[in-house]
Amino acid sequence: MAWKGVLSEWASWLPITERTPRLTLHEGGTPLVHARRLSAAWNVELYLKVEGANPTGSFKDRGMVLAVAKAVEDGARTVICASTGNTAASAAAYAARAGVEAVVVIPEGKIARGKLAQAVAHGARVIAVRGNFDEALTLVRTLAESDRVALVNSVNPYRLEGQKTAALEVAADLGRPPDELFLPVGNAGNISAYWMGFSALRAAGGAQDIPRLHGVQAEGAAPMVTGRPVEHPETVATAIRIGNPASWRKAEAAIAGSGGSIQAVSDAAILEAYHEVAEREGVFCEPASAASLAGLKAHLHKGLVRPGARVVAVLTGHGLKDPDTASGAVAVETLDADLETLRRAIGLVPA
User: Fold this and answer.
1) Of the candidates 295, 310, 317, 305, which has an alpha carbon nearest to the alpha carbon of residue 215?
2) DSSP strand E in 278-323: where?
3) Is 111 left (phi over 0), alpha (psi -120 to 50) or beta?
4) Which strand (E) or helix (H) includes residue 45?
5) Average of pLDDT values for 72-81?
6) Domains of the chain, first to last
7) pTM listed for this prediction
8) CB-side exposure of 323: number of CA atoms within 13 Å?
9) Distance set, CA 89 to CA 58, 79, 119, 129, 271 (Å)
10) What is the DSSP letter of 228?
11) What is the mean pLDDT of the segment spanning 90-102?
């Protein structure tokens, strides 16, 4: 039977009513890929939660479908968000699907082209502001408080409710929660949502254990690691280039409650993991997603994850979200259109 989307598949776990439109682009149900080669190399049982398989290519769709559906249920005709890219793409798509207007506010020059293209293609009103994400979020939050527009950033509680379904899926696919779960942290909503999901499972008697939740930030945008907001965050991982996470306190509670951790990794470590998972496992993610793997590698190096542990790394977005990073590293050989030259180049005949 075909997957019907988050609102149908997880209805009993979500705050929806008979009046909530069953909006869907068939989000959720994303693959949990056993990373066999990396598991062998790193001496753990590693699985990749490939959230780039969602309709707009990121985990944001899980929460956005619920946030937009509830906005429509409440009579909203316009939804608004601030975004570094993935939220914009998702809000634009689900607004289009629901027949309402989307307005997305982005920091000027700080959004990957793939994500911007999506928001534009779905017909959103895209406005760039001369400032960072945190300033953009302050603007839209203030606007939503005083005008008839629905805010669909992760400060909207329905966003986290929808995103918690990823935790339910991980536990269902594995038969139980993993021992450890690593994921990137930008605005800190997703780690909070995983905590909600695993906690809901435990409360329902579906699981006794909650995995240790490990958040990973980029060194240039690591406010939760340093303990203070970063005024001008910078990192190649644009999706987590956020200096003052809106769900900071919720994330701290999730980390403390699960016995997990928060750490920062360098851009070099992120890019190394980004290439490694693509070349060794065939999974192409955006740079921010690879922060989860970079964080896992750092923990392994320090002996903080036991050998053989069952580990899930959440890959939050597809690699095509950020084509510039991928294409900038491409090494292309140019040869004459000659069969023997091609044979020699790929080692089929002695050079």
Assistant:
1) 295
2) 310-315
3) beta
4) strand 45-50
5) 94
6) 6-58+159-327 (3.40.50.1100), 60-155 (3.40.50.1100)
7) 0.92
8) 7
9) 9, 13, 4, 17, 23
10) S
11) 97
